[in-house]
Amino acid sequence: MSRREPVFGWWDAPPFIGELIQSLSGRGKALFGFSSQPVQSRDLTGLAEMILSRRGEVSGAILAEAFLEAYRQASVVERETFMRTLLERFGPDQGILDAAVAAYQAEPSAKTIARLHEAAEPRRQELFRRINFARRGTTTLVEMREHLMDMLGKEPALQPVDVDFCHLFSSWFNRGFLMLRSIDWSTPANILEALIRYEAVHDIDGWDDLRRRLAPPDRRCFGFFHPQLEDEPLIFVEVALTDHLASSVDALLARDREPMDPKDATTAVFYSISNCQRGLTGISLGNFLIKQVVNDLKRDLPKLENFVTLSPIPGFGAWLRDETRAEDSEEVAAEKKLLVARLEGDWPLLDERELDAIRRGMLPLGAHYLLNVRRKNGRPVDPVARFHLGNGAQVDRLNFLGDRSPKGMRQSYGLMVNYRYRLGEIEKNHEAYAENGHIAAMPALRKLAQPVSQEVY
Amino acid sequence: MSRREPVFGWWDAPPFIGELIQSLSGRGKALFGFSSQPVQSRDLTGLAEMILSRRGEVSGAILAEAFLEAYRQASVVERETFMRTLLERFGPDQGILDAAVAAYQAEPSAKTIARLHEAAEPRRQELFRRINFARRGTTTLVEMREHLMDMLGKEPALQPVDVDFCHLFSSWFNRGFLMLRSIDWSTPANILEALIRYEAVHDIDGWDDLRRRLAPPDRRCFGFFHPQLEDEPLIFVEVALTDHLASSVDALLARDREPMDPKDATTAVFYSISNCQRGLTGISLGNFLIKQVVNDLKRDLPKLENFVTLSPIPGFGAWLRDETRAEDSEEVAAEKKLLVARLEGDWPLLDERELDAIRRGMLPLGAHYLLNVRRKNGRPVDPVARFHLGNGAQVDRLNFLGDRSPKGMRQSYGLMVNYRYRLGEIEKNHEAYAENGHIAAMPALRKLAQPVSQEVY
Amino acid sequence: MSRREPVFGWWDAPPFIGELIQSLSGRGKALFGFSSQPVQSRDLTGLAEMILSRRGEVSGAILAEAFLEAYRQASVVERETFMRTLLERFGPDQGILDAAVAAYQAEPSAKTIARLHEAAEPRRQELFRRINFARRGTTTLVEMREHLMDMLGKEPALQPVDVDFCHLFSSWFNRGFLMLRSIDWSTPANILEALIRYEAVHDIDGWDDLRRRLAPPDRRCFGFFHPQLEDEPLIFVEVALTDHLASSVDALLARDREPMDPKDATTAVFYSISNCQRGLTGISLGNFLIKQVVNDLKRDLPKLENFVTLSPIPGFGAWLRDETRAEDSEEVAAEKKLLVARLEGDWPLLDERELDAIRRGMLPLGAHYLLNVRRKNGRPVDPVARFHLGNGAQVDRLNFLGDRSPKGMRQSYGLMVNYRYRLGEIEKNHEAYAENGHIAAMPALRKLAQPVSQEVY
Amino acid sequence: MSRREPVFGWWDAPPFIGELIQSLSGRGKALFGFSSQPVQSRDLTGLAEMILSRRGEVSGAILAEAFLEAYRQASVVERETFMRTLLERFGPDQGILDAAVAAYQAEPSAKTIARLHEAAEPRRQELFRRINFARRGTTTLVEMREHLMDMLGKEPALQPVDVDFCHLFSSWFNRGFLMLRSIDWSTPANILEALIRYEAVHDIDGWDDLRRRLAPPDRRCFGFFHPQLEDEPLIFVEVALTDHLASSVDALLARDREPMDPKDATTAVFYSISNCQRGLTGISLGNFLIKQVVNDLKRDLPKLENFVTLSPIPGFGAWLRDETRAEDSEEVAAEKKLLVARLEGDWPLLDERELDAIRRGMLPLGAHYLLNVRRKNGRPVDPVARFHLGNGAQVDRLNFLGDRSPKGMRQSYGLMVNYRYRLGEIEKNHEAYAENGHIAAMPALRKLAQPVSQEVY
Fold first, then answer.
1. Domain spanning A312-448: which superfamily?
2. 3-class DSSP state of C396
3. For residue B39, how many other CB atoms are within 10 A of its CB?
4. What pLDDT band is residue C455 in, cutting at 50, 70 and 90?
5. pLDDT tens, B347-368?
6. C10-172 CATH
7. What is the predicted ipTM?
8. Strands annotated E in D98-218
9. Burial of A90 per CB tally in 10 Å (0-12, 13-18, 19+)
10. D120 contacts chain C (CB < 8 A)
11. In this complex, do A230 and C4 lie within 8 Å of one another by their Cβ atoms?
12. Which chains have at least 3 CB atom pairs separated by less than 8 Å from chain A?
């Protein structure tokens, strides 16, 4: 009953707001005439100050629209300048902060702490909240953070601004506000197009490939959406329902495979999970998504027992090459060098006997890489491993030549890994991993990994 | 195409989560078996600590569900105890805070300020954010604040907890996340029922009365909704479209009136605006609602020129009675006493001559009350006046016997007032009011008000 | 995602059509100027002919709008005249029909039969189909049939027009085009209002009563809707989920009852089924509705085993009174007279002993009435019995004082009956009933009914 | 508010119906056990008879499901046999028909006509209506007609069965039941896929091409949908908004063109209109679609003044070639032969002077072909011309080399034509065309056409 949705977004064609902005941004004249301090329509700092002024209290939405328009038209240099201004000019009022510190030190109490917390809040946080009043405000704020992230490498001093973006986004993209949606072949094309654009693990090669991943009855896809970013998934996961523990993504994505009846599936294989919004980096989404999808699949398909990933090992290839190149490395056994020497040309086309030799050489190294090669903080070097182990999964099985795509061969000589989510052990695994970096793994894998001391990177 | 909305809320029947919670809350045994510190299912503090623990990182949603269940079953005393615990135990870690203060004082910088801000954040804020992971989490948090507000009168020391609720709600109920919806006779009954329950200004006397306010073509109603509180309006406003400046709510709500063609309307009368969520007290909503509705009405009905309220003056009656009782009041002129003496019994039934005398006595006092009677901070004593003047409206006209309902007669001897929103002057009015308490008013009204110095209450 | 419903009804504000109709209906001038035969805008017959003309082929929708407008403004007398015109002037072309008959008789074949069938179709059928091109055409055609039905009593000769309405509606309201919808407390108020208006069995006493029937978790309501009559249910059924075979509608509708968990329900009681559109009289809907609801309930609540009605016996009271009045009736036993004599005043307030005597007298008569009292065609006199028995239900149990409402006491001295839908026997029951009027009944009931020969009415 | 659509289709997972059908179709045993005449599950005729039997009255939906299942599994031969059975066995009951004829002849009256009409209705019509009770019944009936149409060429005697399909579909796909929907880039992919599949005029070359036709702001697409065929458009039209009368489809579909602001468009070009359901051949849809789209576009974009097509002339090439080949044709002027002789190889690449000569030769022949070359019944030979002229359009302009695609070159040597819909003249044009085959055309075109007598084909 479409008639029941007379719900119009508050920004549908707001005519006189539109005129105001136009008059403002088009001709750069003073805002609303009566103002004593004329503001150039492209002066981002001036607009930001106005948003935080008394006028912003009553005309926040209009001013936010004006700011967004100006930001969209700003050059890269103007945006970069504005980011620095955010750091320097839109921190807290230091006089008030010092007074709050003094009051706290004089008498530490819940009240003085509350005041201290408030006084320490940078003014840019309130600025961001008011920018969000505008149409597409959330979207633009996420983009602004992307722009900031582009600068952080060269200008790490801007980090505190990034902290404020993160603080806000953590609150706004709280799991309670995310909507899980099933994505399939009857999903609007503009959303599906986003999948093609954002797929990060196994490239989607156009619409026919996408159809093969969404339309068959034994395939599922789910994404998190946010009410304010309706047509933009935040993150999505692609799932294959199977009756076995899948070892090869090539087989999963084969063109001519016969789909199975999903009711007979015993195993859900999460073969790709992709973030869509770089501006939300660091905001926890994937963790929640996997658990929710496990939950929903189990409800709908009670026969499902195994929830595993089929994951890339993105750092394995580079690590292996580095190892063999390092002249003085003590770890580099002769076999390691030998193995890498073999991995040349079209080696997957070698005969079965030779492939078997390679397999026997590669698997222990893969296990070693995943289980023993760590960063200084004790976490694995491999980023995908960090993600799933941090979520409470365990390392389950290595798959030789699981991904023969050029990307897969380059990243990890085709090696893939299954992580497994055992419902009863997720918490225990997570806790052990978080406390002391303990990695849950199948005994066979642990045995395979060379019992050397951990390598630290 | 309903099939296209296979969007299932993430909490639809999550079976194994349900079991976990049941096992937890039903039998009070330790959570998930492997725990070394058993938690009673009704121990709110224990659950809250667990939510903030390492386990909460991975099982936040489950623990949040358990907490909500426990909170729902808790007695008033248990809840009150928990509120005090929130104050005492869930502030920031004071050691970390002191270190952050020291670091800031040693070297004030954006970085040390960021750390200080983070260190000063009470742990209960993160607790609230994680509680929000659960189904109906937002709703329950709003209710929790209601419970806290019930305690604040007796225990003002709990104020810092309220500050944290406010901080969070200001961010979550940001205008950018609110959805304006038109409410009419084809709106679901459960939402309409909420209108009947929450109408604060002119009671809705059952469904037939509601129908008279929603169904006619010259009536409108709009509300703000939040994605997480879908069936609960946050605030709503009732509007009558007319061809004149309405002076009497009795006429607006008359049973037998003939509706007009909305396309001919020149005036939109906002005759009632009601907040629905006590737990959102202090979160700015009405300001945005009125402006958005003005915007949308103007777009759809270009002939509309006047946007006025027809508002009660809730404090006028009590003020007048107090005045006449105060023995030593210098302000109390003989006429004032005379007027009040007349306002006895069924005085509205007096003949026109006598009514006219009362009118001539009452209007100047009403104007005086609205324009001159102030609080210590220079704001008007009347709360409705504070709301509309703070939004940038002006006092437009007084209406003698505009509301003859028992409530209207008791509150203000039937006197009502129109505030007017002049699009071009809203900002100026707001600014002048905010800066120095200047009240925008029609000259006639200002003349009517006795030119005495302001009364301060 | 509301944006995905850009589906606008084709009649949303069609501006130039609007102008045309206005020019036509407002001033009665000729249609479109170039016409040589001017048509008065209120001349129903003229408009109908024009719809069937060449012009109607290309401008059918516009002309249909004009016709509907004229029909709405027509007086009762004008409408009645038009109905007679439909009979007399809008039958088939008799010359063509006679030729088709001749051709058929000369050479009976599929081809000549097809031509005969086409030739025998009254022109009003095509007229009705073209009227349906207009906005709200279907609704108005249903209303037109209502108007016709009002005339049929006095003018039975109009029957053939009614046959054509029926023929069309049978095709358009084919079960395949009906949508079953669950109706509950979150259904739009305008649809719920229709329930209050149309409830035919147990009056709904306002919104609070309606809420008691829809909102509790152990209540259900379902209706059939048609795409073209979106806000108008065609028929609806109210269901109570219970753990016993309900014997009293008063208990089912009690204000203070405690709802049960629907998952524990064993029995679905269909306590009211109401048609909403008098203009669809004779179109089979209830039969499909009951079966579909049984189907859906069983799917959602697997514990449900019994599907019974709690039905009125509308003709019982009148029959009983007639019986006792009939001087020469041989059937009228002394006890019958005695019973009726007792049913005076507030007899339900008599003491239990006396009530028991009445019960023992009434039940056999009720059983006799339902099972043995028939029309000439062998079907039961009681209309509700005819409906459920025709659907394949069986008579299950009589309920003494099941309905103490004034209507229930008047109709049947409070007696009610359960019909039971046994899934495995519906077909057999229907077939036996349809073939030879055999009524399926519980043995106890059959025994109770006096073994007299059938009474025929 | 998706929650408000708890509307479940009545066929969602109807478990016990499913079992029944399975037991029936899986093992071919008798239906429901108690039957005395066992029916093989794949015996289409037996199932059809059962649907029309007494049992069908009460179990129509179940039996219809069984029939559809059997039909889907039937071989082509079995289906063909069944079509013949429909003709031979499912006509009317001839005894009853003869009686009705006799009664009519004895006393012609509305009543005897009604009975005659009813008696002449083939039993297959009721059969089709009851098949429609089943899930996807409408879809399958449309497919059944497709299968029948495949036979008609060889077995024209089956025509009367086709008449019955048409009769039903005309009623069911009545314009009043069709829903106009805007189709754009946010439409579900499965519907967009149908566009690619069904586009009949200018092939859509994959998803990128489709995106170019739907996503730009100056493009529109509309389709008719039917409630029972939700994901299947019945017909759709593609529209380009322009500021000039488009003469070349290549320019309209160019990859690199710059879209214009739709608000500035003066002209809507209907450059493709495609039927999607072969089984609905002969049911009037396109006529209504074009008019509705004109209506809606004019409402939304008031500046639009011209509504034209850019249409192929599918028969022109073949006609021209036939002409030149016909030895004895008197019409074949030397220039004609000359022209065709030039149209060899890559002639569009000739220099401008030569092209101009071809243009001057081709345009008069094109005009002649469209205006003068007729069928025996006086209608143009060209099918697209028949469609638009029958709708009341006029021939507006010929476009030399308007379509350089291989198909366009083959069909009509690239020649295209604009038909124009003048709102004020549609009726007049239609009427003149319908009455006596008069073709509305621009004077320039008429002059261009050789003033020969009409050619009849």
1. Malonyl-CoA decarboxylase, catalytic domain (3.40.630.150)
2. strand
3. 20
4. low
5. 998 889 999 999 998 999 999 9
6. 1.20.140.90
7. 0.85
8. 179-182
9. buried
10. yes
11. no
12. B, C, D
